[in-house]
């Protein structure tokens, strides 16, 4: 378009004309050709100025000024100026389009088109910088909004990372200053609206929970309607929490709702547990609460930072627990006393345990086993080696019936006084005597053994013939 050689020629021409003009002026006389040289110099300078348009982008004002100079000098028809006129007209055209796009509902793709077109323009476009900034802020906004947009469009109930509400609020307010038309701000506005509505509903729900929990504190379990109220509120709280999670934002209310639901559940269970021990009018056939259940329940209350003493029925549960634990402590002591406590007292303890307002099944079972006396020594089961009579089912300590090994089958003296041992080997290997071995042990006479059979039948009702409820005992012996 513009070649370098031509440029050098132009500069040489300007130099020559300038010195010619100086020379003419120094003559001190009127020279006829001098104005002509002056005009030629102006033309050459104008052309030289025109060439700078190609070297670096110039402002539209500069180009306009240049072209009007060319018109005055009658050189505007020259190819160089015709090309520059074309540059100006394209640039003006671009500017016109830009201002019309910016004036109406500006779309991001229109702005991007303008920027793409501007790459081929040889002039500084006044609106370009603003447009580039608009695009950049819109894109930054879209990028930041991305996670919220995907949360708003997705149907997933629990997104992996929870987003912050204040960020959403910021994005919605920033979207007001975006100078482009986007669908996305509307989506975020709807999301924010839903969030705020959800928060408002929850505020009410949490207040309701507080009121109901206060009511539960003075509840004495006589009015069953409180249960249905609590159940209904739990359902509503849980459903609110679920819809909050589906919004995908990190709400302060979410953990509050979870705690509310757990506390209401705790109250519900407190009523159920204590009602069964208070009276059977409310809930028939439920039976006494177990000590284990009450302990577990009070522990759950602790993790929820609930003080059971603040609740009428909670206090009742603590009392039940204390009563149960006190009895269970005594029961455990007796279970491991190796028969020290008289059988009558054991029976009394069992009856006391059966009449407690709480159910301590494990201890009761262990005490019942403890009330079964075995062998010729009339002692409860202990960890010593025992053998069962294959006929009467009675259990004997091997050391009490003088067995130094455990036979495959054994018939006791009471059942078969003549042949007390079956399968007994003629000779047996000597065993290392235990520490207790040296103690003189009272060995039952045959008459005592006969007597024992009847004693056992009268005193203890045996349900299991083979095992003296050994399966529940190891817990007490460990
Ligand atoms: Zn014994
Ligand atoms: Zn027997």
From TrEMBL:
Parts of the chain that traverse the membrane: none
Keyword S-adenosyl-L-methionine: no
Domain Zinc finger PHD-type: 374-416
Organism: Noccaea caerulescens
Pfam family of the protein (one): PHD
Database matches in InterPro entries: Lys_sp_deMease-like_dom, Spp1/CFP1, Zinc_finger_PHD-type_CS, Znf_FYVE_PHD, Znf_PHD, Znf_PHD-finger, Znf_RING/FYVE/PHD
SUPFAM superfamilies per record: FYVE/PHD zinc finger
Protein name, as recorded: Multicopy suppressor of chk1 protein 1
A GO cellular-component term linked to this record: Set1C/COMPASS complex
Subcellular localization: Nucleus
GO biological process per UniProt: positive regulation of DNA-templated transcription
Keyword terms of this UniProt record: Metal-binding, Nucleus, Zinc, Zinc-finger
Any one Gene Ontology molecular-function term assigned to this protein's record: zinc ion binding
